[in-house]
Amino acid sequence: MDIRPIHTEADYKATLQQISGLMEVDPDLGTPEGDRLDILTTLAQAYEARHFMVAARNLPDEVHRALQARATQHGRSAEAEVLAILEAAVMPASRLRMGEAMAAIGRNVGLTDKAVEALKRAQDKAPADPMRFEP
């Protein structure tokens, strides 16, 4: 079993590729392939702990392995994969982009730069009176 420490990002990516290949075989624990997968996963986790700032406590091994496999499929590190997953979750492509929506409304009603300037000049510049909630 020729297993070496992970020192560089290239070593890390190569390890992830080995892990991905072993995960496709899905070896039983205690077999040479299962032991190799276990050791490589431990090495990858140690490398990630030293190099990545995203921490997920109590992450099941299956989830961690799936994350590593997904990262390998996309050709990026586990950290980059986590960031991509988080970005897709909190900023989906289908989300409402307020600025774009307002610009579209302006275009639809034929609002021009000249009209916007006129609105700005006519705008009341006095500060608003604060709301009062007492009777």
Query: What is the element string, with H for helices and E for strands?
Result: HHHHHH
Quickly give the structural class. Answer: mainly alpha
How would you state the average pLDDT, rounded?
A: 86
* Main beta sheet: none
The proportion of residues in beta strands is under 5%
Oligomer state equals single chain
First-residue to last-residue Cα separation: 80 Å
Overall spatial form: elongated
Number of helices: 6
Please provide the count of β strands: 0
Helix content: 55-70%
State the low-pLDDT regions, or none.
Answer: none
How is the topology of this model organized?
Layout (H helix, E strand, L loop, with lengths): L8 H17 L6 H20 L9 H13 L4 H13 L7 H11 L4 H10 L13
Helix pairs in contact: 1-2, 1-3, 3-4
Please name the defining characteristics of this protein.
135 residues; elongated
